[in-house]
Amino acid sequence: MESVTLSKRLKKAGEYVPKGAILADIGSDHAYLPINLVQIGHVQKAIAGEVVKGPYEHAHKEVEKRQLLGAIDIRLGDGLEVIKQTDHISAVSICGMGGGLIRDILDRGVKDDRLNGTERLILQPNVGEQLVRRWLVRQGYSIVSEAIVEENAKLYEFIVAEKKPDRPTPDYSERDMKYGVFLRKDCSSLFQKKWKQEIEKLQFVSQQLKKASIPDSSKIEEVERDIAEIKEVLTCQN
Ligand SMILES: C[S@@+](CC[C@H](N)C(=O)[O-])C[C@H]1O[C@@H](n2cnc3c(N)ncnc32)[C@H](O)[C@@H]1O
Prior knowledge:
This protein folds into two domains: 8-176, 3-Layer(aba) Sandwich (Rossmann fold), CATH 3.40.50.150; 190-233, no CATH class. Helix content is 44%, strand content 22%. It has helices at residues 8-15, 32-39, 53-65, 99-111, 129-138, 174-179, 181-186, 189-211, 217-233; strands spanning 21-26, 43-50, 72-76, 91-97, 120-125, 141-151, 154-163. Helix 8 runs antiparallel to helix 9 (217-233). The site of S-adenosylmethionine has 17 residues, from strand 2, strand 4 and helix 4.
């Protein structure tokens, strides 16, 4: 049977899926993550959810050609509407989308009772990470792990969250939300690379703002404040 080799990014997502889990991979255009995890015997079974017909059909073909339709159910639908309580999902992965979209998918999932709070959430927003963290914290999740992975010169953040009913939600700070709870403390070289890139972008914005015929001083101050804050975080004293 043809095996699937995961990209570094999806491999990382797989590492966060608990052994023996029943996984729902939402936005599963090729179903590679579920296929790989079933092939290596890491998950019992999986659901691959996709909202667009073309990628859904692609995912179906990839699973079918490996004769894994018994272990991986490919479902066409919007976000978490493809799962139901009787699926007994224990892990949900949503990778490779914007943070706002991931947040909205999760939010609808909670409102429609698709999530019951026992699932581990493995989230990889391409942008807008703080939108995801803020939603998680508002909903009473604890952030249990974070990582940054570099692939093809791009940096990807992972946020892993769980509800801990026996423990109060940790008291997260603004900086935890913006920079990451663990990422900020670990202050790894990839974390530093990510935020140095952000400083460069902000410095460019600041220069452009200063060149305007009527410079917006409050906007310039805001950007300069953001740069100063990032520089302080990058001293890794937090
Ligand atoms: C960039 S791809 C990422 C695919 C894969 N998760 C990965 O990380 O490599 C995003 C996929 O999510 C799907 N998608 C976007 N919004 C969705 C939604 N609301 N529900 C399910 N799938 C969605 C898109 O159609 C697309 O196939």
